[in-house]
Amino acid sequence: MIQTEVKELEEALEEAIMIAKDKNEPQLLSYTDKINEVNPISFFNKAKDINDRNRFFWTSSTDSFFLVGAGEAFGLQSTSVNRFEGIEMQWKKMLDKSLIFNSFQQPGTGPIALGGFSFDPEKENTELWEKFGGSQFRVPAYLLTVSNGNYYLTINVVVHAEDHAKQLYFELVKNKKSLIKKDKLWPVKSVISKKAEVNPDQWKELVLKAMKEIKKGKADKIVLAREMIVSFEKDVDLSSILHDLIETQTNSYIFAFENSEDCFIGASPEQLVRVEGNQLFSSCLAGTAPRGFTSIEDRTIGEELLTDVKNRQEHKFVVQMIKESVVECCEEVRVPNHPVLYPLKNLQHLYTPVQARLKNNYSIFDIVQRLHPTPALGGFPQDKSLAFIRENEQLDRGWYGAPIGWLDAYQNGEFAVAIRSALIKGREASLFAGCGVVKDSDPEAEYQETNMKFIPMLSVLGG
Ligand SMILES: C=C(O[C@@H]1C=C(C(=O)O)C=C[C@H]1O)C(=O)O
Ligand SMILES: [Mg+2]
């Protein structure tokens, strides 16, 4: 139940304890307050002192919206056949039973679920991704929301019948103070001691094999990814990596999902879906070229990309599939007829935005379920390309290429496609990059394209 009245935290805790006693079961309380300005990276950095290592970071740098989560008040994981439905059911059940004090009701405040999915739950899991399941969301114990220049702190806590309101209050306030206290940040550069591409020649042969499948008419597009493993001289400082990603990777979602010693982190330009009330946004991003060194060269490369037959093919399949999927749950679907350029620091893409009005009774998960994986990360048709990837790709994609994001209690949320990313495990990291193979592909050119896609992560990791 959501309440908009203004109550002091201590009173809210007392009320939650009463309910816990009445119902004889633990009660989730969510309490949101406005706070003074705080640096999101500083908050993220401080969070390592107060909780187990399970932080979350999210920013869509285009509208300086930040979410930073610390700790876990409630965890959601689905083992059902339909993991999207499974998570959504758990989320709704949790919300129904929660006591929520949020007089602001701004998107991204109050109880929110932060998390993501693996690319393909049917592909065998390896040790690499052992800490990340097929679906995992968490309601953070402490959440910083930065939106339209306003700062909010939400505390989510499971209260038990035998808890003492004052004692709990002191503990929560102590943690809150420590989290929002200004932290001196000294960006620490990581130093790479070793760098290895995993079987690049074998990967080029796989591109050739995919092209043969396509020429035989078995599929139109198959996206193939590969891995690079880097080792570091000392442990990587995640706050510094986030800081550098924000500084260097404009037009991108900067995200991190930490599971004890492992952290999945990246700077993805690809929006899967955003829902704000009943407004829906999605994006088709596929087709790639480098940036030019001079503005003239840059413009020439961009113009070539816009008319390049092979890249337009890659792009077309994505637009077609996203449009068809969105139409099922939306009205007033608007999709331009031609892509435009989407410039990034190291490369540029073909981009077509999608806008629509979500029909009643559909949620963000209905869209995620229909879209994932789009032909930008799977291929076209979906079943054929996925089967090829599952059988032939030598890599455990884990959460790479899959939806990562958040949703709140008010029908808002956003998911990015987790590309340009790395899984950092202590002094080692796996980087991932893929590309869309179509009938006119060239294995060497696709290899070079994936090299470009490693650069955003590699450069902030010290490579
Ligand atoms: C698969 C990746 O990117 C995707 C593939 C692209 C392409 O092949 O042109 C472009 C953008 C993304 O849709 C990746 O970055 O790993
Ligand atoms: Mg491509």
Describe this structure in words.
- This protein has 463 residues and is an alpha+beta fold.
- It folds into 2 domains: 2-180, no CATH class; 192-460, Anthranilate synthase (4-Layer Sandwich).
- 33% of the residues lie in helices and 33% in strands.
- The protein contains 11 helices and 24 strands.
- The chain has helices spanning 9-23, 40-50, 83-96, 165-180, 200-215, 238-248, 295-307, 309-327, 364-371, 382-392, 443-460; strands at 2-3, 27-35, 56-60, 65-70, 74-76, 99-101, 113-117, 135-139, 142-147, 150-159, 192-197, 221-232, 253-259, 262-268, 271-276, 279-290, 330-334, 340-343, 347-358, 379-380, 403-407, 413-417, 421-425, 428-437.
- Helix 2 packs antiparallel against helix 6 (238-248) and helix 5 (200-215) packs across helix 11 (443-460).
- The ligand C=C(O[C@@H]1C=C(C(=O)O)C=C[C@H]1O)C(=O)O binds next to strand 12, strand 16 and strand 24.
- Ligand ISJ binds next to strand 12, strand 16 and strand 24.
